[in-house]
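Let's practice the habit of predicting before peeking. Look at the sequence and jot down your guess about where helices and strands might fall. Then scroll down.
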Amino acid sequence: MSQSNTKESQSVKQDSNSSAPSPFGRKFQIFDPENETQFTDNTVHTAKYTWWNFLPVAIFEQLRRVSNFYFLFQMIMNLLPGVGVFSPVTAIIPVGLVIGIGILKDGIEDLRRHKADRIVNRKAVCVFRGKEFEQIETCKIRVGDVLVLKGNEEICADAIILASTDRDGIAYVNTMNLDGETNLKIKRVPLQLMKQLGCIPLISLKE
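Done guessing? Here is the structure:
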């Protein structure tokens, strides 16, 4: 009985170890059409508002400020009969102007964000999807796409370097937009990985 119990416990431990999550995180296949449904797209959203929620959210943001809420409370108290000191117009106009100007300012800034998002999302990028090179918008990049970047071209998505036109697999990356450093970072690609990906005709893309 004791030997059988120990064997069963050992088998349970082995099964539990085999079902443990992978230490490498998520896995995916390149050139796999199913990635489009399993992962989100590459669209950039930095704007705070949309056309349908702008007014209520902007008013709420204005009233979150202590000063605006205090003056609004004073205006409401001044409108109560027997309590107000000033006329309703005198009480409403200053508060309305302050909140209205704040909403207008937020709206103008958010329009600029929407415009910047459109510029980034519509920027053209070259990808290799198994058979041929394609020019697509950056918002249409999917997990598993192979990006083809040339010199001084901006990296428009989270990516790892698979190959380089340099014989030693060296690539120089500028990270000034991320950390403010102007010096180039050296990234190396394992030569064995470059040989395995030799089917991608990178040499033809040399400038």
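How did you do? The mean pLDDT is 81.
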